[in-house]
Structure to design on (399 residues):
């Protein structure tokens, strides 16, 4: 490696040796677009599609129809036996249907569903969170507070021999406020344990002229016992002072051991912190290139995946050509990550899912999902919407 390169790395307080070693083994993963031609139904606008691979190779997909800003219809599911080329017709997840709130026009629904399959026994877990609706849409934006119960994280399970379970509250007995498992990414670890990132109420704030919860993050540690998640403990709080705080975290178990957490925030950054055990976390730092230049990310999610022995972040950012796109939500990027440094390697960045036009209009992307299919391959799924139409997109990632 050239001396000038080492000096640049030293100027931002990073280890020339560690990043130099990484640079010598830089390689871009192979990105293969997949055709999801009959995913969902064309007359509905399907949003935030998620896929998980069952033990027999079948893909289980979850999706929700979007009817407005944060206004989602009942969650649906479908199966594919040919790696996404064809899908069964979408059906509602019965236990996730919205229910009436007392004798009112309001409903208690679920949103931001995400599927995962346990490596312990092949049980599919689908996480979500509470959302409250009036006929106008999400009551949070309309400020229609009606004495609703607290927001909670939920999960349902699916097994081929039993189908879908009833809706279950994700237990968090050491906390009694609002909490969410929205657009989450979890980690199955040893001893049948599961680490679930949760964001929860840590105060109140104003956001977009509305009253809002201010959020922090904890990691819940659970033990899988069949189709149940039994609470063990929770981590320290991870807080953020700007906007609505720290939101929509995603976790990954690192190849070298330990864990990394990436966090959506509202100060034009995304953040990352690390932990040896998933319970005690380092201070968060914002994502930056290896030269110390921060990425401009707006208020958007990031998720993880692995390809071989490499860890990658999937994210959106201001790339200079998408400033007019809401929250820079297209294109979707992928780059190799060094989580302990908060660094993305610029040389490895690729467009994971490109910008799309629908009837000549820029498609606004939804809440994307990353699925680990095998230790070396992963899948990214997303949906873009415009003109009351949607297009579902998927990319296979391999070393």
């Amino acid at each position: 490696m050239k001396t000038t390169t080492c000096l640049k790395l030293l100027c931002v307080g990073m280890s020339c040796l560690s990043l130099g070693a990484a640079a010598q083994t830089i390689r871009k993963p192979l990105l293969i677009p997949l055709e999801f031609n009959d995913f969902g139904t064309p007359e509905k606008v399907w949003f935030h599609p998620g896929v998980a691979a069952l033990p027999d190779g079948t893909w289980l997909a979850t999706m929700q129809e979007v009817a407005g800003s944060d206004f989602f219809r009942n969650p649906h599911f479908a199966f594919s036996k040919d790696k996404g080329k064809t899908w069964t017709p979408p059906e509602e997840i019965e236990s996730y249907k919205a229910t009436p709130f007392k004798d009112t026009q309001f409903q208690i629904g679920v949103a931001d569903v995400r599927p995962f399959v346990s490596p312990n026994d092949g049980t599919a877990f689908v996480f979500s969170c509470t959302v409250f609706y009036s006929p106008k849409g999400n009551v949070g934006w309309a400020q229609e507070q009606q004495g609703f119960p607290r927001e909670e994280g939920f999960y349902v399970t699916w097994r081929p021999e039993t189908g879908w379970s009833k809706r279950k509250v994700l237990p968090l007995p050491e906390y009694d406020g609002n909490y969410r498992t929205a657009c989450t990414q979890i980690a199955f670890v040893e001893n049948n344990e599961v680490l679930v990132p949760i964001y929860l109420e840590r105060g109140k704030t104003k956001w977009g002229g509305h009253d809002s919860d201010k959020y922090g993050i904890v990691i819940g540690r659970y033990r899988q016992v069949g189709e149940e998640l039994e609470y063990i403990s929770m981590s320290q709080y991870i807080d953020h002072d700007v906007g609505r705080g720290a939101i929509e975290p995603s976790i990954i178990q690192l190849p070298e051991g330990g864990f990394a957490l990436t966090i959506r925030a509202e100060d034009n950054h995304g953040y990352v912190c690390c932990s040896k055990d998933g319970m005690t976390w380092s201070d968060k730092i914002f994502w930056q290139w290896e030269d110390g230049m921060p990425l401009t990310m707006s208020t958007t999610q990031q998720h993880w995946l692995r390809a071989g022995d490499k860890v990658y972040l999937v994210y959106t950012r201001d790339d200079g050509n998408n400033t007019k796109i809401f929250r820079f939500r297209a294109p979707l990027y992928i780059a190799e990550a060094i989580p302990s440094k908060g660094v993305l390697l610029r040389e490895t960045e690729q467009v994971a899912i490109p910008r799309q036009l629908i009837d000549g209009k820029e498609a606004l992307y939804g809440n994307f999902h990353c699925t680990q299919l095998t230790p070396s391959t992963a899948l990214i799924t997303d949906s873009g919407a415009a003109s009351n139409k949607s297009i579902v997109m998927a990319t296979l990632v391999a070393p």
Summary: Residues 3-398 form a domain with the Neuraminidase fold (CATH 2.120.10.10).
